[in-house]
Amino acid sequence: MALYESILASPHRTLNGDEADYFYVPVLDSCLITRSDDAPHLQMPEDLRLRSYHTLEYYRKAYDHIAQRYPYWNRTSGRDHIWFFSWDEGACYAPKEIWNSMMLVHWGNTNTKHEKSTTAYWADNWDDIPLDRRGSHPCFDPRKDLVLPAWKEPNPGAIWLKLWARPRINRTTLFYFNGNLGPAYEEGRREDTYSMGIRQKLAAEFGSTPNKQGKLGRQHIANVTVTYVKSEMYYEELASSIFCGVLPGDGWSGRMEDSMLQGCIPVIIQDGIFLPYENVLNYNSFAVRIEEDEIPNLMRVLQGINDTQIDFMLGNVRQIWQRFFYRDTMLLEAERQKKLFAEEEAAWSVEVSKLEDGDDVFATFIQVLHYKLYNDPWRQGLLLEKETGLPSICSKAS
């Protein structure tokens, strides 16, 4: 919804399809999926009772509508259309008819390592969706698609304290990860396949909280935190760390955003999976990638990064953190609330309004579209005459 509302309010939006460079199709898959479990009429037997399959059919209906009602789809075979798949695994269950389009997701699995559905929740698994509906496309194609940051609610205290700018001298924890660690731990997910087993491997080596058997990780050391225990000081603990783990859940987990917003160097452990803007930003300048098989060597790798490189990466995180934050969308909402309510301005609104101007999620999204407009190979040599202004039907008096 944050992206959709920003598009609706954007000066880049046009009501004239003939002058549009892109067409955003507002299918809200997460709204449908989250209601499926408590709305029996949404669980159709013909969809194998899979939320993924049922959602695919909704996208297909949207495709049928725009392909039949508007001339723009057939003009480019849908290449200039944009679809958002915001649920866990992204566009894995996109109907084959729309795969030419640009997919927006929160998690970009190229399927080069993890070829099948990675979720541990059966209703979201897409492996059994018939090929005549889904096709055989990957979940993400970095040549045309884009991973966007997940929405993070503004934390007034974290913004006021400027945790993203905390200097290295105050970051005393070498590595930090807090989250569900699987069946070996209290309150852990029961499925061995949760997180593709990656969180479980990390905890087995470096767990700092005892598991159900009372054991710590094999290589546990004092300045490393790998725990499942929820903390009221979560943001503070991230901001007290140099490196922070970015591991999957049933798909995306929001840990990349948590790291960036608290000024911590992201350590990405998920092979073949693109994170937000990874195909447009130089990730080597502010993040570390560790192969899943190298988890036992994680601390040796991090301890081997010299001070100059660490300072360089922390500095880059501070420079670009707002690209992972929906600042302008929040300011739009703040303005709406001011008009609707005469009450005192919310704390989050006050703090967000104090932030220095910088390119946030939506600004970065528009910049990527502008770049693609002049660099996508399929657009080369494509000459389209575009009319400006409102279509004549809109200007006629009723």
Write the layout of secondary structure elements.
Blueprint: H1 2-9, E1 23-25, H2 29-36, H3 51-69, H4 72-76, E2 81-85, E3 102-105, E4 108-109, H5 131-134, E5 146-147, H6 156-161, E6 173-178, H7 198-206, E7 224-227, H8 234-239, E8 241-246, H9 255-261, E9 265-268, E10 273-274, E11 288-289, H10 298-303, H11 307-320, H12 327-340, H13 347-353, H14 361-375, H15 392-395
Parallel strand pairs: 1-2, 2-3, 3-5, 6-7, 6-8, 8-9, 9-11
Antiparallel strand pairs: 4-10
Helix pairs in contact: 1-12, 2-3
Domain Exostosin GT47: 2-304
Pfam family, one: Exostosin_GT47
Membrane topology: Single-pass type II membrane protein
Describe it for me?
- With 398 residues, this protein is α/β, with parallel strands linked by helices.
- The protein folds into 2 domains: 146 residues, no CATH class; 169 residues, Rossmann fold (3-Layer(aba) Sandwich).
- Helices cover 33% and strands 10% of the residues.
- The chain contains 15 helices and 11 strands.
- The strands form 3 sheets. Strands 7-6-8-9-11 form a 5-stranded parallel sheet. Strands 1-2-3-5 form a 4-stranded parallel sheet, with no helix packed on it.
- Helix 9 links the parallel strand 8 and strand 9.
- The chain is globular.
- The model has no long low-confidence stretch (mean pLDDT 91).
- One of its GO terms (molecular function) is glycosyltransferase activity.
- It is a single-pass type II membrane protein.
- Keywords: Glycosyltransferase, Golgi apparatus, Signal-anchor, Transferase, Transmembrane.
- This is Exostosin GT47 domain-containing protein.
- Belongs to the glycosyltransferase 47 family.
